[in-house]
Amino acid sequence: MASASALDIHVRQVTKAYGAVVVLDRVDLHVQAGEFLTLLGPSGSGKTTLLMMLAGFTRPDSGSILFGTQEVIRLAPQKRDVGMVFQNYALFPHMNVAANIAFPLRLRKTGAAEIARRVEAALDMVQLAGYGARGIDELSGGQRQRVALARALVFEPRIILMDEPLSALDKQLRELMQLELRRLHEKLGTTTIYVTHDQREALTMSDRIAVINKGRIAQLDTPRHIYSKPNSRFVAEFIGESTFLNVAVTGGVCRYRDTVIKAGGAPVRDGRCLLMIRPEQVRIVDGAARDGMNCFDGRIVGRVFQGDTMRIEVDLGGGDAITLRVPANSVGLQSLPDGSDSITLGLTVADTTLLPDER
Amino acid sequence: MSTPTAPATISLSDDHAAALSRDRLIERWVMLSLAAPAFAVVFVCLIVPVGWLFYLSFFTDSGAATLINYRHLIEQPSYVRIFWTTFKVSALTTAICAVLGYPLAYFMSQLPTRAANLCMIAVLLPFWTSLLVRTYAWLVLLQRTGLINHWGMQLGLWSEPLPLVNNLTGTLIGMVHIMLPFIVLPLYGNMRSIDRSLLQAAANLGASPVQSFWRIFLPLSVPGLTAGALVVFILCLGFYVTPEVLGGGRVTMVSSRIATDIDTFLNWGSASALGAVLLVLTFLLLWIASRLAKNLSLIGAGH
């Protein structure tokens, strides 16, 4: 939900190189007003550089960045009016919590009463009411994270940037904060750009995800689409778990070994392509192959109990393997063949995803 | 939780507890013993002689117990003037060092590590020469017929030789030169440790470079500044060579007077009393300064 004042961002043909190393290569990105967009990629992919450019700390070599209709490519950071949450929070250690949050308001010459009121409201919003007089070193990691958030939001910036803000928190707190950040975003409706290398975090929080690899945007789509319809092996491997089978395409017909593979998606060019299989999409099939399913015969070579699921490794012979997950409940476990290790796996046509073979 | 084996486990761990605490004690003494040589040196070379001097200050030359040495310090105006000069020269040197050293340390802290290390070598270079040599070099440069006056007059910058040496000016020039590295080093270390993302955060929140310097960088560099200033100030209080050579007898600091008392008058009692009073005054001053600093930081921490 976009608030009335939310801005969209146009990144056009932005390039940055350090010597011979190209960090960002002609990146185009349109962030919609009020959107929560995540830049997701491995370290060194250029996602943080892109964020630093939006904040104004890094100057691109060329290109254009528009906030709404305003060109900001040469605008100094302090004039951009964007709020940023830093990875290490960057709270001022010589100021207490309230003074940290009041800092941007003081710079804007806000009146003392108004500052007090807004600091109070910001502390309320991040559920730290009454913590104003605390020193920064008296706070836990999660509390510092909230103070950093309050400081970035208190001056009602046009855009909010977050650089892996949850990476220093433990898993439980991280998951709690993900939901809280999401809730805050829905309330405020400010355009938000979030950088992370944690795919689960990206899937949980984002309206859309831009997967970045080697300085280019590999795919930009909703979490659901990115997960179920990745456009490349890189995206498929980076988000979620998957195994791949080599598929030959002749005359528009795909074959894995001698079996015809039925796929619902766009037609693939003749040659070779990859069949992507997500562990939770495969099912164990008894007896004959069923309609609407691509089936594979194999042998179970590994079973790992992981609490909520059993992870099963199936060897198809010839170096090919499929990993699947079976819920660790009585129904799921009963479906496993006992005695023999032979197994037949089925993948519905709707779930069958073919990817271009990049090699 | 009670299981049948619990009592046995507890008694076993009790046996171990005694042994473990004995191990801890031995370990602590072994660690302490590492400091023993240093402690012995400090005791023999510092505590014993200082204590002996302090003791001497309560006796006349003939060996009678007396407070006359301390009475002189209060009653003779020349002594008051000497203490005043000592603290004034030290404070001025410290202030000038801070003003000159801060920008230098800031500049170095912003350089890439390699360039900063080169600068650091340049700052430390003077330490490779003896203090005495450097002081006499200043005498050569600053005297009436020295290089600076010579060039200055030839270039027509001034017509009469400037009195650059054998006075307070010369003393300060020499002392600042020698003391500068002592304030630059801690300042530089402190500034290097200031997280750059704090300055980015300040800019992001709307602070101009000038504002982020005054509100973020400067307050965070205060510990380095205090440490450096303290070192310089304390070293200045006991400075002897440079004020003697460059002051030309017009800048008498406590250390000079102590030397005269011993060399010329063989008055150990008076010299010891001077030393003791300087020590006490220095402690007093530092105590006041630390109280002031604490109050200041309390004010600074709030709104």
Describe the structure.
The complex is a heterodimer of chains A (359) and B (303). Chain A contains nine helices and 20 strands. Chain A has helices at residues 47-55, 97-107, 112-125, 141-153, 171-188, 199-205, 223-228, 233-238, 330-334, and strands spanning 9-18, 21-31, 36-40, 62-67, 70-71, 82-85, 159-163, 191-196, 208-213, 216-221, 243-250, 253-256, 259-261, 271-277, 283-284, 293-305, 309-317, 320-327, 342-348, 353-356. Chain A is 25% helix and 35% strand. With 359 residues, chain A is of the alpha+beta class. In chain A, helix 2 packs across helix 3 (112-125). The model of chain A has no long low-confidence stretch (mean pLDDT 89). In chain A, the strands form four sheets. In chain A, strands 6-7-8-3-9-10 form a six-stranded mixed beta sheet, sandwiched between helices. Chain A has a five-stranded antiparallel beta sheet with strand order 13-12-11-14-20. Chain A has two domains: 9-234, Rossmann fold (3-Layer(aba) Sandwich), CATH 3.40.50; 241-356, Beta Barrel (OB fold (Dihydrolipoamide Acetyltransferase, E2P)), CATH 2.40.50. With 303 residues, chain B is mainly alpha-helical. Chain B has one domain (77-301): MetI-like (MetI-like fold, Orthogonal Bundle). Chain B contains 13 helices and no strands. In chain B, helix 6 (131-142) crosses helix 8 (168-192). The longest helix of chain B has 34 residues, at 77-110. Chain B starts with 5 loop residues before the first helix and ends with a helix. Chain A binds chain B through residues 55-57, 76-78, 80-84, 86-88, 90-96, 98-99, 102-104, 107-108, 135, 151-152, 155, and chain B through 195, 197-198, 200-208, 211, 215-216, 219-220, 300-303.
